[in-house]
């Protein structure tokens, strides 16, 4: 019996001897397993389908690395793709809370962990970011919920808005705003009422609160153990209220984490935090790596992936040095360099790191030579055939048109790229002839 995805993939690939590249058939077989495993991990069907497609595109034809098995390599591609899908924009766990007092609206179903999460987040903002926080409960139908927040407030040393009987949620939200402004608070958090399931009244109430408070962040709290239901909840709240992020609770339980992937894919909104227990400090920044490991169901997956990464990089670097020493530099080499630059934060990032280059980095930025340009250049190379990449001399007018069109760009951009490749190639040849690179390589080895 295959326990998890990693074992399954190894099972599929152990039978294969190493070939030059992953064949389409190999990848297909592996991806059938990936799809089943994703569904078992509670990823929804359309998301699993899109995901598998993305992996397939990346994996087919990728060169097999020396010291890891093809199975491990597919695991790595799956892992990296998972992280790509899971990662939101911006710093993980960052919140837009400048312009005090910044309102944070907390929404979700009853029992999802909303009140607990409100307090946990307030504590985090106070302890880690030194913010003054005010919490207010808007759950007028459940006095116990209002008291629960007040008790938690005392426990963590965060103020709560005094409870006034007979007010409706909109009135409480307005009072919280006034109180936060007058009291010099940085942030005020509105813990809205939940229902056991989504209903019209709940949505209207949350909408009304949203409209009076204009929240900087609207965080949806969902129970990570509820799998597909959680995804449905997220979709509904996002459509009606417009959320800015998700907090997944009960990730200390044995849910398999697939809901995280579906939720991210379906709503397009980042998962910002995860709840890992009932205690007030059991809230952590969401880390895609962890969830990816969990979905793959393998404890040491991260170590394995890191090893694979190092091996791949070392092999690439070695190969490139050897080619450069021979004075060779084609489009594949250029692509590798561009990708390397992109990884290091683009031209600006690289220059920013070098002393005295800050000013030049700015000029580069002004010239429009940034990550976007790098990505366009890579897209152009990707639009070339294998033969064309290996031998750029083939690139005549009609091929150039096709390539530019394939990348959705102008031929003039392709011309610039070709000029760059020619210059690099000339430089390599000169250095190769003079034996400079060979000398340098000797020195390094
Ligand atoms: P609300 O109805 O959405 O406000 O839910 P509560 O905040 O009252 O939480 C319901 C229950 O879930 C409480 O017993 C919490 O202690 C518990 N809870 C909340 N977050 C987590 C979590 O991340 N892990 C675990 N294990 N329990 C949690």
Entry keywords:
Rossmann fold, 434 Repressor (Amino-terminal Domain), 20 helices, binds guanosine-5'-diphosphate
Could you walk me through the main structural features you see in this protein, from its secondary elements to its overall organization?
This protein is of the alpha/beta class and about 450 residues long. It has three domains: about 5-90, SRP54, nucleotide-binding domain (Four Helix Bundle (Hemerythrin (Met), subunit A), Up-down Bundle), CATH 1.20.120; about 100-285, Rossmann fold; about 325-445, Signal recognition particle, SRP54 subunit, M-domain (434 Repressor (Amino-terminal Domain), Orthogonal Bundle), CATH 1.10.260. Helices cover about 60% and strands about 10% of the residues. The protein has an eight-stranded mixed sheet with strand order 3-2-4-1-5-6-7-8, sandwiched between helices. Helix 5 runs parallel beside helix 6 (about 145-155), helix 13 packs antiparallel against helix 16 and helix 16 (about 370-380) crosses helix 18. The longest helix has 25 residues, at about 300-325. Mean pLDDT is about 80; it is low at about 350-355. The structure holds guanosine-5'-diphosphate. It is found in: Cell inner membrane; Cytoplasm. Part of the signal recognition particle protein translocation system, which is composed of SRP and FtsY. SRP is a ribonucleoprotein composed of Ffh and a 4.5S RNA molecule. InterPro entries: AAA+_ATPase (IPR003593), P-loop_NTPase (IPR027417), Signal_recog_part_SRP54_M_sf (IPR036891), Signal_recog_particl_SRP54_hlx (IPR013822), Signal_recog_particle_SRP54_M (IPR004125), SRP (IPR004780), SRP54 (IPR022941), SRP54_GTPase_dom (IPR000897).
